Amino acid sequence: MSSSPDAKTWSDEDRELRGQRMTVVRPLRVLARLIAINIGVSLIYRAELVLFTLANLTIPLISLMIWHAALRGGARLPVDEHYLGTYFVVLGLVTMLTSSWMMGELAGDIRLGVLSSWLVRPSAAWLRYVANNLAEKILKLTIVLPVVGILWWIYRDSVALPSSPLIWLAFLVSTAFAAILVFALDLAAGALAFWFDDVSALSQAKFTLSTILSGQVVPLALMPAWSQTFVDVQPFRFMVSFPIEVLTNTFSRGELLGGLALQAGYVVLFCGLAWLTWRAGVRSYTAVGG
Amino acid sequence: MKANGDYVVTARSLTKTYKFHEQGAGLWSGLKSVFNRQYQTRLAVDGIDFQIARGEIVGLLGPNGAGKTTTLKMLSGLLHPTSGELDVLGYRPAELRPDYLKRISLVMGQKTMLWWDVPAMDTLLLHKQMYDLTDEDFSASVTELAELLDVTDLLSVQVRKLSLGERMRMELLTALLHRPEILFLDEPTIGLDVVATARVREFLIEINRRRNTTILVTSHDMDDIEALCERVLIVDHGRIWYDGQLADLVLRTRPRKRVRATYAESIATANLSALDVHGEVTRESDRVLRLEIDREALPVVLQQLATVAPLVDVDVADAEVEEIIRELFTRRKDVV
């Protein structure tokens, strides 16, 4: 069993040089390649993607019609028509951009041992969930944007979009923060599958709670007055509602910066929680076997 | 065995225990377990010691639940040992350090690294980034392995459209793309037909020859082990019962040779008396004899067989390895 003269084995020096060159860039290149693969896979199941995306747009669409009709019917609300119009037209877009669906997938990968083949490769195993999330959002954007455009045109008299580039920038930043926040929560909750056989009940509880408290069903501005203090500071607000509130341009500069700072704090907190849960989970996984 | 410095794997008193909760059948047991969980500990690997030298192909054999896969998972880093020492290429595998993972590869016959819905080339391109391969290294490795595995035309075919054998060959290509120094294989031929199995075996022997890749393989298929491995570790109940060459195992446990002689006409019983002294002689039919004889007596017996009646064919063989292993597991006797 000796190597043939033409055998090529990489020396330690070769490997070291490769390692130094790619330490920072490698995860990004892996992520880019994973996104490309995920886009390829999603395009194969394109009909499913279109149906799923359109189905998710129905809630904001119906809510928009109901609240619009209620206001026209003389309902007295703490917000005006422009607030509601803007809120629901943008809601579908923000919900899509900030959504995450990895909890079930991660739980399945842990339960079925699929994670094993990822853990023995020199790349963070969770990168594939990030890639899947980003890839599907890129594709969904091509469906959601035209629909939102049509809605805006239909309800253009009730929609008041800001003209200030700074507000748009703040909207983009807070949407990005919200997306990270939702993903980190999903990762932390999904990682509980390292210890529990079934996390579907937790997933359902999280879904119900976040749907209501993030403002996906009813704008948080319409919540009872006695609950406003809690509603304003709880983390789910910063997962969907806050970016839309930024766009409705109802904040003072101080309120906007304070809100962004609180959101950034939640991002740090939830990312830290996800990191700790993931690390402890992988340790537990390698302790008991996958 | 190689010199000390050549060992790529060293395990000393390697032990792994699993803790799991126990629950009886029925509603009452279910309710009881909510408030008072009973745990049990199972010893999967029981203080084993072994070393593997660079370039060796070693077979890890044992019945289900013997501790083979647990050992393989500890070697690849997927499992933390409960106690003992494990050194692979100078690393502690359980730390899952990227530098270490770049030097090994794990192929699990029942779990895939390939993306199901896209061509295998997509997974290969992903591995190019994961393992920091240059364009030249990537192309050279893909070309060499695809030719060896005869899958060049399949690289652009969706993985789910490949046959099981083709998929396993793609799996091996993916695993060896980054030229790992050690390849861990868990049941690589499971479910494959005879032709596909032969191709996998030939490929592994060739890659070991060309790249000096160390291979540790678990398999239920004894033919795999016979074809690939000079050395075997026989594991049962978490312990190593035998560590050595397959041929030595045969010699040690079943030293007798098996001979089957076919004649052109019926054999007279009187002519067989001279053969009896060398071992057991049985008649398979009027014209066929089966003998199990002492190894040293083989030349004499062959001469005597020629005198019994007009001889048509003689077949000489050792006991089947599968039979030996089966017997070994049944007896669970230490043969070391």
Counting helices, strands and paired strands, the structural category of chain A is mainly alpha
Question: Quaternary arrangement of the chains shown?
Answer: heterodimer
Specify which chain pair forms the largest interface: A-B, 41 and 48 residues
Gross morphology of chain B is globular
Provide an overview of this structure.
The complex is a heterodimer of chains A (290) and B (336). By secondary structure, chain A is mainly alpha-helical. Chain A is built from twelve helices and no strands. In chain A, helix 5 (102-111) packs parallel to helix 8 (165-190) and helix 8 (165-190) runs parallel beside helix 12 (253-288). Chain A is globular. Chain A starts with 11 loop residues before the first helix and ends with a helix. Chain B has helices at residues 27-35, 68-76, 98-101, 120-130, 135-149, 164-176, 194-211, 222-228, 246-253, 273-276, 298-308, 321-331; strands at residues 7-22, 38-53, 57-61, 83-88, 104-108, 182-186, 214-218, 231-236, 239-245, 257-263, 279-283, 288-293, 311-317. The radius of gyration of chain B is 25 Å and the shape is globular.
List its salient traits.
heterodimer; A: 290 residues; mainly alpha; globular; B: alpha/beta; 6-stranded mixed β-sheet; 4-stranded antiparallel β-sheet; 12 helices
Offer a quick outline of the entry.
The complex is a heterodimer of chains A (290) and B (336). Chain A is mainly α and 290 residues long.
